[in-house]
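Protocol step 4 of 5: obtain the predicted structure for the target chain.
Materials: sequence only (see below). No template structures provided, no constraints applied. The aim of this step is simply to have a reference model before the mutagenesis design in step 5. Sequence pasted as it appears in the construct record:
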Amino acid sequence: MKNDNIVLTGFMGTGKTAVGSRLASRLNMNFIDTDREIECATGLKIHEIFKRYGEQRFRAEERSVVEKAAGFRNTVIATGGGVVLDPENMQNLRKSGVIVLLQARPEVIARRVRCHNNRPLLADRERLMEQIESLLQERAPYYEDCDCRIDTSDLGIQEVVDKIVAVLRERGWE
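Step 4 output (structure tokens):
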């Protein structure tokens, strides 16, 4: 396995940003969060893009940022939860490195995202679990496009980082 990029995919609340930052530090790699890059490029928060322009505009911005990020080397890339929905995104990311899926049980995701009001696809707090389960089911086939998967439900950030490093080393990562 070549030592290029490590791409973290998975549903919101699975720990991609927190784990990605710590993983990059541990492996002496650069770190990029595609959602943060979209916010920098547009000058708007993700929820503001959704509110003003809709999901289609957000996905177009996301595609542009992912294409740019996939061109980097020696980088841990934390993606937005829906990046997997666009085959072009996944083709670009796959060419750039290894894809690690972070997963968590729906009730854990609900607990982790409940206090955040900036999740446009989980805006209805009364139906939070229903929304999470529905989106997870819809995205399940897309999340299959990964090289390895880590369940973060019962793990701390450092434990997830340790598991990713162990799995990558087993697969020849140096």
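Step 4 remarks: The chain has a mean pLDDT of 90. The two ends are 8 Å apart (CA to CA).
Proceed to step 5.
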